[in-house]
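yo, ABC transporter substrate-binding protein is done. seq:
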Amino acid sequence: MRLGKAIALAAAVVLGAGACASAGVIPDNEIVIGLDEDSTGPGASYSTIAGKTVRLSVDLINQAGGINGKPVRLVVENDESSPTKTPSIIRKLVDQGASAVILATGSGSVLQAKSILEQSKIPAIAPVVLSDAFASPPGNDYSFMIPNSLKQYAEVYCGAFEKLGYRSLGILGDASASIDGIIKTLRPALEKCATVTAVEKAPVDAADLTAQVSRLAETKPDAILVASIGGHFEILAHNTLSKIVPETQRFSLASIGNQPASWALADPKALSGMVYMGSISADNARTAELTEKVRAVKGADYQLTAYDAQSYDAVMMLAKAIEIAGDHQDRTAVRDALQQVSGLPSSFGQDDLTLSFSPGDHLAPDSLCGLVLIEFGDDNKPAHPWDSYQPPCG
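structure:
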């Protein structure tokens, strides 16, 4: 009988411990930050870049003594940029005691996260997502984002189109859920300054884009915008465009500039003259400082990307908020403190850029200065800021 009672008592203790863990108890002696990183899905090409720098940033914080004297521990899950998987991933991170979450995943997944963040009352920062809807009402009480938004992208593109007299635009996009959402957001804003002559799409793993590009060419647009998650599709798009419409000015989103490994896959001079929406400026001293920190870990030849800088700034803003809150066990207090982080000098964008959150604004950049139009050179590498137009500051 005594042995039976002992076994029963032990079982009760184990079950009780499991119940506490599943309830998402936040530890007192350490600060847990959750990371939703798409490491195997369609967003892996950029999410893993962000994820590595999130890890580096946490290491740097711990080397400096942690936050409020407590070490930071990162817990990682992977939703594969699948919106149907995202809610369960958020719950897993909550169950592991996370005080806040960093969402390094696709736009569709990030948008799907909003409601579960509200239900769980856990703040989340998206360092690479561009969709305005994530940080905007309704249901954005716990949703924050670091980069300039797609609507601000449209403002910059329109400024360039108006200066150069471009009145029509063709769009070539991949058929991923993330890009579908991006095009739906961008197109109405772009149509305020240019007629969209056609939108052509193809699967992310398409082997040939000749038909899509030929149909775009028939509409005779003044410029063409490539909207993709990057990687194979992006390079195939520019290889094809450079052959069929070599004289048409090409623009692209941020992906191509943040994926150096893909540049070598382009045909000779296929990227020459293409202008992408960058967020890295050689004139920003903080970008140079971060480059040295990242190269110490990733190698002396590593090309810093906006994903690196935005992920680093996301962790720093979250660390500042936890420091202000003074109580990482109260997730709502961490959210409230995030809304007090103001004027943080940015590691991306132009030198004057600062980052702030407030109760009415969960988009970090304080101006369009987080964006830099970058032109590719004949060597298929980013060469310099585009001479024809740059977004204004202030």
